[in-house]
Design goal:
It is a single chain. This protein is of the alpha+beta class. It has a domain of 175 residues: Lambda Exonuclease, Chain A, CATH 3.90.320. 35% of the residues lie in helices and 29% in strands. It contains 6 helices and 12 strands. Strands 5-6-7-8-11-10-9 form a 7-stranded mixed sheet, with helices on both faces. It has a 3-stranded antiparallel sheet with strand order 1-2-12, with no helix packed on it. It has a two-stranded antiparallel ribbon with strand order 3-4. A hairpin with a 4-residue loop joins strand 1 and strand 2. Helix 3 packs across helix 4. The longest helix has 23 residues. The radius of gyration is 20 Å and the shape is globular. 28% of the residues are buried.
């Protein structure tokens, strides 16, 4: 279980909040988009992977999640104008080779597609939609408003398309005058082999010295994908009729 940690020194508290849930008023809690999609089938490929790796599945998944989280944090810094360096002041490497390649691919995407940043790692919680989530990026690319999710996984699953659709609905509810026009996954582990940018066809992919990236889009519009998400949400609600997030509050000092 992942937690968000909030230190409140003014009242000497540490609040360990369940990150699978979102709230605006600390009274009404709603599941995250990814928590809802945990009941969506991963497909034959995922089931086969579980069989292949066996008992190592949890360790591999946790390691991949840690890398993904690190890349998200660093790309957020990049978009906030921070210069990222391979080594610290003592000359020690701060990233593995694979992590550095992923960051270089992200930078290559930004240079070749020249998006204009609108939102960076912005969280939403909707009492109307009854879920919350954190959007990676909203940008303008070639005159269109894009919602982009960054992925460092080896594969793209249908659930990730549904995730984007749900995020788009969250954004649109808060920004009715600036709705999302396109959604895409910035896939930093794609296998494309050539640079190709076709604005009319929404094709954005690139190759650099560190490998390839692709802004992967989907055939159906996100409003159609959202209908599938809503069915999934109904199943999650059926299985979790009395859900309640873990919210552990502890003192921040100890003295004997």
């Amino acid at each position: 279980m992942q937690t968000q940690i909030f230190h409140k020194p003014e009242i000497q508290q540490i609040n360990f909040a369940d990150s699978r849930y979102y709230t605006r008023n600390e009274k009404d809690y709603f599941p995250s988009v990814t928590e809802i999609l945990s009941v969506y089938p991963k497909g034959f490929g995922f089931d086969q992977w579980l069989k292949d790796v066996g008992a190592n599945a949890k360790e591999i998944a946790e390691r991949a999640a840690k890398v993904g989280s690190k890349i998200h944090n660093v790309t957020e810094d990049l978009n906030n104008g921070v210069e990222i360096k391979w080594a610290d002041e003592q000359g020690n490497a701060q990233y593995s080779i694979d992590e550095w390649k992923l960051l270089l691919r992200y930078a290559d995407f930004w240079k070749k597609c020249t998006p204009t940043l609108i939102a960076n790692e912005q969280s939403f919680c909707s009492a109307n939609l009854k879920f919350g989530g954190t959007i990676d990026r909203v940008t303008m690319i070639a005159g269109k408003r894009w919602l982009i999710d960054i992925k460092t996984s080896n594969y793209i699953h249908t659930s990730q398309e549904l995730q984007l659709a749900a995020y788009a609905e969250l954004w649109n509810e808060d920004n009715p005058n600036a709705p999302i026009e396109e959604t895409g996954i910035l896939w930093l582990k794609t296998s494309v082999r050539t640079d190709k940018i076709d604005i009319d066809k929404n094709i954005f992919q690139g190759v650099c010295e560190a490998g390839a990236w692709q802004l992967k889009t989907f055939e159906r519009h996100y409003t159609d994908a959202f209908k599938i998400f809503q069915h999934t949400q109904a199943i999650w609600t059926e299985e979790n009729p009395t859900y309640k997030p873990m919210n552990l509050i502890l003192p921040d000092t100890i003295k004997l």
